[in-house]
Amino acid sequence: MKQKDRQQLILDRLAETYAGAKTALNYRNPFELLIATILAAQSTDRQVNVITAPLFEKYPDPESFARLTPEELEQEIKGVGLYKNKSRSIIATCRQLLEKHQGQVPAEREALEALPGVGRKTANVVLSVGFGVPALAVDTHVFRVANRLRLAQAKNPLETEKQLCAIIPENLWSQAHHWFIYHGRQVCRARNPLCHACTVAELCPAVLDFQKST
Fold first, then answer.
1. CA 81, 129, 156, 96: dihedral to nearest 10 degrees?
2. What are phi and psi of 71, to 5 degrees?
3. Nearest to residue 31, comparing CAs of 2, 76, 7, 66?
4. Is the pTM of this model over 0.85?
5. Fewest beta carbons less than 10 Å away: which of 15, 120, 156, 191?
6. At the topology level of CATH, where does 30-131 sit?
7. Contact 25/46 with Cβ under 8 angstroms?
8. Secondary structure letter of residue 104 according to DSSP
9. pLDDT in tens, 122-166
10. Domain ranges of the chain
11. 3-state secondary structure of 59
12. CB atoms within 10 A of CB 20
């Protein structure tokens, strides 16, 4: 089977298997999505949702976050990893939103990535999920799944993103992000992947490697 045909079949099967997949983060607007995505780094979406439910009721906008000290916010978010760093970044981001963007989350990549604590992955999530702008965020799940399936052969998230965007139509970038995440969480795990339950196992070059190691 030609490489291009194999790639297309993998994408078609993932699209069918994870039809309707969307972010697991709870949010009501782009600002809440931005804060939740910052908090989600090195934490689970489930844990972030537990924290943001009361957090957003107490602090619903950039103004309310900007009035906090890092120590005060730390107490609200200490259930997530790296909470001290995230506390400082969130407060700085909210102050920058007020100073430079009239309190609104910008819908441009450059402006998003200029916010403290916002890298390319977070910016891509906010663009695609919050604003419907085509973007393909590469987290650890996307990176792992894409490279195991040889949809990408890259050493870092940026190269993975570029290679995926080259073979996936732009109108499917945002959806594909969720296909890979769901597949990575449910089947193609970092350790002990469930190859026997994988819808694309016979198309995956990594299957033989896992079989040899067991």
1. -60
2. -65, -35
3. 66
4. yes
5. 191
6. Endonuclease III; domain 1 (1.10.340)
7. no
8. -
9. 999 999 999 999 999 999 999 999 999 999 999 999 999 999 999
10. 3-21+137-213, 30-131
11. coil
12. 6
> What b-and-e string marks burial along 60-89, b requiring 16 or more CB atoms within 10 Å of the CB?
eebeebbebebeebbebbeebeebeebbbb
Contact (Cβ atoms closer than 8 angstroms) between residue 127 and residue 135: yes
Across the range 21-29, mean pLDDT stands at 96
Provide the token pair at 102. 């009239």
Residue 109 backbone phi and psi in degrees, to 5? -55, -50
The answer to whether 163 and 153 have CB atoms below 8 angstroms apart is yes
Q: Please state which of the four CATH numbers 3.90.470.10, 3.90.1150.10, 3.40.50.300, 1.10.1670.10 is assigned to the domain occupying 3-21+137-213.
A: 1.10.1670.10
Pull the structure tokens for residue 194.
């469930």
Write down the mean pLDDT value for the chain: 95
Q: How confident is the model at residue 209 (pLDDT cuts 50, 70, 90)?
A: low
User: DSSP secondary-structure letter at 155?
Assistant: S
Position 1 scores a pLDDT of 81
Q: Looking at residue 207, what is its pLDDT?
A: 82
C-alpha closest to that of 18 among 189, 206, 174: 174
Q: Output the six-digit token pair for 41.
A: 């780094």
Amino acid at 77: I
Listed residue (191, 212, 207) closest to 10, CA to CA: 207
Please give the Cα distance from 212 to 210 (Å, whole number): 5
Question: Mind telling me the catalytic residues?
Answer: 121, 139
Instruction: Answer whether 183's CB lies under 8 Å from 17's CB.
Output: yes
